[in-house]
Amino acid sequence: MRQPQAANSAGHVVVVDSGGANLASLGYALERLGVTARVTTDANVISSAERVLLPGVGNAVAIMQRLEERALIPIIRALTAPVLGICLGMQLMFEHSAEGNTTGLGLLPGRIERMPAAAGRPVPHMGWNTLQRKRDDPLLHRLTDEDWFYFVHGYYAPATVNSVIATVEYGEQYAAVVRHKNFCGVQFHPERSGKSGARLLANFMALAN
Amino acid sequence: MGQWLIMLARRIIPCLDVRAGQVVKGVRFRDHRVVGDILELAARYRDDGADELVFYDITASPEGRSVDRSWVARVARVLDIPFCVAGGIRSVADAEAILNAGAEKISVNSPALENPSLIDALARRFGSQCVVVGIDSETSPGGYQVHQYTGDPNRARDSGRPTLAWLNEVQDRGAGEIVLNCMASDGVRRGYDLEQLALMRAACRVPIVASGGAGAASHFIDVFKAAQVDAALAASVFHSGAIVIRELKTALRAAGVEIRP
Q1: Is residue A68 part of a domain?
Q2: How confident is the model over A30-60, as pLDDT tens digits?
Q3: Is B7 at the interface with chain A, CB within 8 A?
Q4: What CATH number is given to the structural domain containing A56?
Q5: Which residues of B are less than 8 Å from A192 in CB distance?
Q6: Which of A58, A118, A192 lies nearest to residue B82, judging by beta carbons?
Q7: Which residue of A1, A68, B107, B231 has the lowest C-beta tally within 10 Å?
Q8: Chain A contacts of B260, Cβ < 8 Å?
Q9: Residue A114: inside a domain, yes or no?
Q10: A51 touches B: beta carbon within 8 Å
Q11: Cβ atoms within 10 Å, residue B115
């Protein structure tokens, strides 16, 4: 359980410095919401945070190695505050990724697969899509099927994972928003999804602890 | 075809040629004149419904010098849509500085022709989704040929590579997207090179962005319907106000092209 004292002294928002390259744009998106985030790999700062964002751009193997080197895997697993994985950060929340045959954080059951290119379906899946809601969740508060989000990915979580909240259609259905308890993930980039993305981030910030 | 892509919006991408922190535009890569302030234009296109922006530093690549890119972070702060930076990116370190400043993608052109393994190195380090390859393709009697150093009229030349072969090579090396600039149609506003773009689209398994020739809303409808490209890029028609993106998007929707409003 959270110690009241820790909550009072902390109250901070953390972006885990996963070594990926979208840290700046995520920081600016939070700044536009009036939130100042600390970008860090410091275990104590992460453990005591009110909110934790786990971004990821690049390579699954490289990011898992970085988290392991900094002994952050058990720290992230033990978090009870709301955590939001973004893009590769979401994928790493699952048990395994086909990208580099990597073991993930295991926070959510399921495996990340590689998206094959097909006629009329270029890969990576790159561009703006709407979502199909599978169940209600505060993460999707005031978002509808008219909201568009920016996706860039070549690997995916299947739409059948039991944590799925919303899916995206690109030839097939894929998981777009997932959540199990305090662990949330989005395949798209809310920091680059205009007003809809800002809404999702605001919803995440407003989740009950 | 088509069925797969129905749910994915085609993208409209204004391209801002940047020199010394200002947006400039020339015809056929020559006679550049200032068209506006970079942050003002970025905010204007964001508000007007652009799906993505490309900033192309037109002076960097041919002159082989490092440039002041402090504007990248300022752009990242005001934009809530993706953007790509092109021009003068010669190394993983160059790319890293731009991506760390907040750009989603970097685009390489002439340096990739000089050193194709740069594409592999960038894709390994940042993932293919960050790596765009720009191709300037000229129509010649022998077929489509890739041109190099096109930012500098004194150095511009045929690279000796057929466009189709280069397109395949850059995909194999890990490019995540290709911007195909059809030089014969660039700057003259008579429409995109549909024939060439359809040919290259069919050969390409990554997203392809059409560039060169936009002059009217109908040209965008044509390039999405006839060439099935994933995105269409244009510069002068947007800067001049000849085409307003909101109105263009309304026209595209009316024509049955999937678009983000």
Answers
A1: yes
A2: 999 999 999 999 999 999 999 999 998 778 8
A3: yes
A4: 3.40.50.880
A5: 79-82, 104
A6: A192
A7: A1
A8: 128, 148
A9: yes
A10: no
A11: 13
CB B173 within 8 A of CB B123: yes
In this prediction the ipTM stands at 0.90
Q: What φ, ψ does residue A8 adopt, rounded to 5°?
A: -70, -45
How far is C-alpha A39 from the chain's CA centre?
15
Dump pLDDT digits (tens) for A4-19: 333 334 489 999 998 8
Q: Which residue has the tokens 């359980």?
A: A1
> Does B230 contact A at CB distance below 8 Å?
yes
d(CA A71, CA A122): 37
Q: How many residues does chain A have?
A: 209
Q: How far is CA B209 from CA A122, B151, B223, B254, in A?
A: 12, 19, 10, 22
Q: How far is B6 from chain A (nearest CA, A)?
A: 8
Residue A125 lies in a domain: yes
Let me know if residue A32 belongs to a domain: yes
d(CA B134, CA B15): 13
Domain that holds residue A144: 8-205
Are B46 and B260 in contact by the 8 Å Cβ rule? The answer is: no
**Interchain CB contact of B74 with A (< 8 Å):** no
Distance from C-alpha of B92 to C-alpha of B140, rounded to nearest angstrom: 33
